[in-house]
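WP5 quarterly update. Target: SMEK domain-containing protein. Source organism: Dysgonomonas mossii DSM 22836. Length: 414 aa.
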Amino acid sequence: MLQTGTYFEKIVEMLNAFRTEVHTCSTLGLLNINKHSENFIRTILNLTYGYELENLNKGKSNFPGIDIGDIGEGVAFQITSTKKSEKVDDTLTTCLKYKHYETFKTINIFVLTSKQGSYTLKTSTEPYFTFSPETNILDFSDLLRDIEQIEPRRIKAIYEFVSSELQATIKLINEEVSDKRVLVNIAEGASKSNMPYYYRWQSIVSNKNKNITVPEIHTSLNTFLPSTVLKSQFLPTLNQVFRTISSSKEIFYCNNISGSGISNFFHGEALLIENSSLITERVVYTNDKILINLLPEMLSLITEILFFFKQSKNKFEIDIKISLDSNIDTYFHPNQSLVVNQVLNSYILESPFELHEKLTDIKTPTLRELLQKIIHGFICKQPNFLTNEPFLAIDNEKTETSINGIKNCLNITD
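Structure tokens (predicted):
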């Protein structure tokens, strides 16, 4: 039978392995692994401190910005792999905005990687609740220090739980890595731009009825967009300057970071050509809330759909997978949008958002409906006094005019 000291040593070993897995995912920009970690961390905190923390993200969440909480004790935690001061400020601002302090007198942040040595915060929580970086920001080092001090039977209980659940949790995280093919190196872009927040769009468009080789796609795509002007307008990543890999199995174009002329706004983009498929990714980096109009994303998506239609000889069928995610509130902004002229409320990306569709025609109403489903990823979180609808409806006439304009530019008829 293991002794208490051995139990603790095993806990240290296992939690350090877990922290390493999370750090790897975090550097890849896969911050959705926070969700996979919530229940795992919740149980360890309950066993260590005697809480009865519950997952606040189940069902309809009334507590944006925090993930687990014990209403009886008035204690809540945000679980995050982002350790920077800006992230803490964002969390505290959200807690003040939604008055979480009325339910939870203590609000903590648990960092899944390692917290910073010190924090410089702009947000004052007084007189509503007290928040100290030294006390209320925790990581595994703090947790292990406290575990070491509790009675042996509880240390054993933690050991038994971690032993039984660690591999299943790591498996979920690894599935996140394998399922999410991140093309743009978000960690590198964030580091070079010194911007802590990002938004990412990825679309995968695959031809289902005909096998088209990589060389065939590459040649046909350049014929489909013959001029530099057309490429820069509809698929700007298709630029030989950005080509980093060329083979018969894949051609990869990538630009991890570019400036925009605005000091705190950068973007990265990538295009991967594989057999019968095009994968496009766009990332935005900033140090403030993100406003996006989805113009470049929608232009490239419609272009790729029309391209595969052009390649089809008889029956047309394509598979479309779209994912959007961010690590800060990302708002839809109508300026220069293809689908909306104005919005009367704030619509925030419900991150992560995923959409999987199959298309068998390129009729304008079909493409309009696809764009509407994408816009449904943005939700009105606050009451809208002009409408009871939490989802943003596109302007059908404007959207169809935009789609028809793209078709005309690319010489496509239904």
